[in-house]
Amino acid sequence: MQSLKLTVPFNLDLSVSCGQSFRWRKIGEFWYAPVGDAVWKVKQEGDVLLYDGASEADLIRYFGLDVPLDDILSDVDRDDLIHSAVSSCRGLRLHRQPTFECLISYICATCANIPGIQMRIENLAKTYGRPLEMDGMTFYTFPNPKDLACESPENIRLCKVGYRDKYICGASAYAAENPDWADEIFSMDYKDAKRKLMSLPGVGPKVADCVLLFAFEKYEAVPIDVWMERIFRTRYIGSEKKLSYEKAAGYAREHFGKYAGYAQEYLFAEREFIAKKGE
Fold first, then answer.
1. Which residue blocks in the chain are alpha helix, DSSP H?
2. Whole-angstrom distance, CA of residue 245 vs CA of residue 250
3. Residues 107, 203: contact at Cβ < 8 Å?
4. What is the pLDDT of residues 139-185, one digit of tens each?
5. Is the pTM for the entire model greater than 0.85?
6. What are phi and psi of 40, to 5 degrees?
7. Which DSSP symbol is given to 232?
């Protein structure tokens, strides 16, 4: 077991359970997840991370520990609502997820709750990934683009992905045929990158924004679900009429600036935090 002394704010539990990624599981005192070609095992004790399966550099990169979180939160702390979220959820950091896995995961996330999303992702991994052992448990790598691209939609559908089968096949074929696709997205500005992702079948505005925020460090991306639309409409704009996706996201970018995606995640996480306290 290795250890990393934290010199920056970080809340592991909040960061892996706030809905941005889907493969982390808490088993006993540790969080486990297959990341890339290894199983990571991580636990936080105060300002120390205890971990196995990852290098220190990979841990820092994945959890965004090199990102100036205090500066970002100071920049978005522009009203009482976000101030409350920043105060109660400080240490929440956006992950840098593997790009292809993130893309397919959020295609699987359309019109679905978190248990359903997790089920689909695990079915794909068990069927097309490789088994990995850790502490007597079996995990599975996420399949690479070629493994999925060569499958028929009918076979992909057996993973209980429903109508998303053809979208998964299409995105996988694109990634397999364009091995530099992720580098291309990274090099683009937010608008061009979103336009590029949305050229893929099954990738709408929300899927594109989730992938750009959680895998490509495009912090202007603001995923809007029913809860975030309601927050921006009722707590910020004061409108009774439901906001369009672009109006809600555009307002967030105008109000919070270049780190609007971070602000959105803090507002979302505080809503979940309050809901769980009330259970």
1. 12-17, 56-62, 69-76, 80-89, 99-108, 114-128, 145-149, 153-157, 165-177, 181-187, 190-197, 205-215, 226-231, 245-256, 260-277
2. 8
3. yes
4. 999 999 999 998 999 999 999 999 999 999 999 999 999 999 999 99
5. yes
6. -95, 140
7. I
CA atoms within 13 A on the CB side of 190: 19
DSSP run (H or E) holding 33 = strand 30-35
Q: Which string of b and e fits 76-97 if b means at least 16 CB within 10 Å?
A: bbeeeebeebbeebebbbbbbb
Domains of the chain: 2-67 (3.30.310.40), 99-215 (1.10.340.30)
* Pairwise CA distance, residues 165 & 242, whole Å: 31
pLDDT in tens, 227-246: 999 999 999 998 889 999 99
User: Which contacts qualify for 65-70: CB closer than 8 Å, 24 or more apart?
Assistant: 65/6, 65/8, 65/10, 65/93, 67/93, 67/94, 69/8, 69/9, 69/93, 70/8, 70/9
Residues 6+ apart with CB under 8 A from 203: 103, 107, 167, 171, 197, 211
- Kindly give, in sequence order, each residue whose CB lies less than 8 Å from that of residue 215, ignoring residues fewer than 6 positions away: 96, 97, 98, 99, 102, 103
Longest dimension (CA), the chain: 53
Q: Indicate the residue type of 260.
A: A
Residue identified by tokens 């007597």 is: 136
- The two tokens of residue 144 are 């690479």
The angle subtended at Cα 54 by Cα 50 and Cα 56, nearest 5°, is 70
